[in-house]
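Sequence, structure tokens passed on for absentees:
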Amino acid sequence: MNPVLSNISSKRKPVDLFILGQFQDEKPSLQLASLEPEFAKTVKTAISKGRFTGKFGETLSAYDGSNREAAEVVLLGLGKKRSYKTLCFRKAAAKTIDLAKAAKAKSVRILLDSFCTGGVKAVDAAGIFAETKVLAQYDFSRYKSKAAKSDAPKREIIFEIMFEKASAARQAQKAVERSLTIAEGVSLARNFINEPGNILNPPRLVKEARDLAKRKKLSCQVLGEPELKRLRMGGILAVNQGSTSPASLIVLEHGKNYKNRGTVCLVGKGVTFDTGGISLKPSRDMEKMKYDMSGAAAVIASMGVIADLKIPLHVVGITPTVENMVAENPQRPGDIIRMFNGKTVEVLNTDAEGRLILGDALAYSEKFKPKAIIDLATLTGACVMTFGDKAVAVLGNDEKLISRVKKAGESVEERCWQLPLWPEYGELIKGHHSDLYNIGGPYGGTITAAMFLKEFVPENTPWVHLDIAGTAWSIGGRYDCPKGATGVGVRLLAELFTNWRK
């Protein structure tokens, strides 16, 4: 259910829970005394006695008949005002949802202005709250027998976002609608990634892409194995030759009538399960290899968001989809394959498969004469070792495009950190019996993987590579995501394309 938008001057009924924010070591807002005079006295006393300081996450509550707005009123600490940024508000928004659940409230009112300061505007905060509300309550439980047997619909908490000014409430409506569209896309990406490998294999991902294209009025073309063989996409075919499921290259298009403004290609790695092939992965955590198609999930879901937001740009989403298995006739270490652009690769490690399928897809993107290319992939364990789950590694050949991607990521808390693509790293992947090796040795793995991809980017085309290996999966859950897939990349791309012409 969408949040209800209101303002202080509008008529309203009492709710179950009323939540206000309080910055650390600051005086309570004048609105608190106006809206809840008795509670304001309690707050003043608690602050003077040091029982409440406003540290982030600290709470002070009152539950009695003297409250005007709700049966229970809660003051939530926001921390120091000078260090309060958008990420702080996102976490505070998630905290309000936790408070509502703990109180078993059916209706909640939030004075949004009390959560805002110079760096966090109320209108923007309304959209962030709506997005966080959806993402923090995301649940993937379709395979739990109790969930399957329960016919009773889940009762959603009604959240009312109250502004001090009526004009802000009116302006916030668009921000809320946009955020809910993006949250829907993130949730869809999470659903794709959380599906087990025995359910979501390459043919199923093709079906999901076709269904999305039909719903969102996107153009959809699927190249099956006959077409891949005819086009000599040796990377995709070699990786998938150990699987009993056929490989595909999925191409989604939005905004063909905007071609005159330039085309942007998105490329996403779609390995629906990665055993490592003959270079078998360790058994520990191998079950997480269903998330090796997180790049493809982000691209497919983002194409739906781009369509819903009516972005005035020609965007093409390209997702090679395979399984890296050891049945049938798997590729072997030492095999030499010829890629779509004619370059040959000696496969030193069959677990470095993502770059092979991305290489073919990147080279294929030349067909669309792109103005820019962005690829997303859970590409390297080295990225996880470097950044953990805190940052996306960004590499590329165009500093202006890299800067735009980083700015978009910073805006939506999908932060990126740039690594170099110095020519010296390219020496590490030069082949002996072939043009290239598919790995570059034990060090600098994230960089050498990107150097490999660079060999397949159309000449003179701005390109950015996002290694999302560490950020695609939440191991223990976080404020806006339970344990499992995060859907990383969807919010970043939506932000990037929303501001593409600016």
